[in-house]
Amino acid sequence: MAVADRLQSRARASPRRVTATVSVVGYALVLGTFGGFLPFPSISNQTVILLSDAIAVINAAALSAIVAGVYFIKTDQIRKHRGAMLTAFALILAFLTLYLLKVGGGFEKEIQAEGLVWGAYIVMLAVHILLSAVSVPVVVHAVVLGLSHSVAELRETAHARVGRIAVAAWGLSLFLGLVTYVMLNHVYGWVPR
User: Fold this and answer.
1) Three-state helix/strand/coil letters over 70-129
2) Are 172 and 134 contacting, i.e. CB atoms less than 8 angstroms apart?
3) Right CATH for 24-192 from 3.40.50, 1.20.120, 1.10.10, 2.40.128
């Protein structure tokens, strides 16, 4: 309990510093994986396909939790809001773990589409990736504030404002990720990249 209290005290005193540290660690894990600097066990093509499907289910659940969290805060159900948003955050951590394993130990997929479909897919994928990257510090900051302050104290912080930005960016990123997943895996097909 003492460790948790110390962590909460630090987050409360310096939420921006904690946000920056956690965000940098997340970015380093992703860049290290894509750069081939982190060791991952080699996984089979079948496992890559299974992980792709699991990631889509996790992202759909995370998006559902975000939508539920928005509903709960709008109806002043603060405990349920907190539970829904922490569930979404935990799901995103699970996504990150599986995604890094898929990329680091397996491969990425390239859609087999051409023309306008390919262009639309690439635009949606680019927006999805950009929003994912931009969402990290915003989501982490909202979570850090939410976990380190009481409900009454949160009213005096940027939690609500940051939370609205996080929900918009994160929610749209998840939605576009699901659309591109369906296009890639169930409509047009793919080849390993």
Assistant:
1) HHHHHCCCHHHHHHHHHHHHHHHHHHHHHHHHHHHHCCCEEECCCHHHHHHHHHHHHHHH
2) no
3) 1.20.120
Q: What is the pLDDT along the chain (193 residues), one digit of tens a residue?
A: 677 778 788 888 899 999 999 999 999 999 999 999 999 999 999 999 999 999 999 999 999 999 999 999 999 999 999 999 999 999 999 999 999 999 999 988 999 999 999 999 999 999 999 999 999 999 999 999 999 999 999 999 999 999 999 999 999 999 999 999 999 999 999 999 8
0.85 cut: is pTM over it?
Answer: yes
Four-residue CA torsion sign, 177, 178, 183, 184? positive
What secondary structure letter does DSSP report for 190? E
DSSP lists the bridge partners of residue 111 as 190
What are the domain boundaries of the chain?
A: 24-192
Gap between the Cα atoms of 119 and 166, Å rounded: 27
Strand duo 190-192 + 109-111: pairing = antiparallel
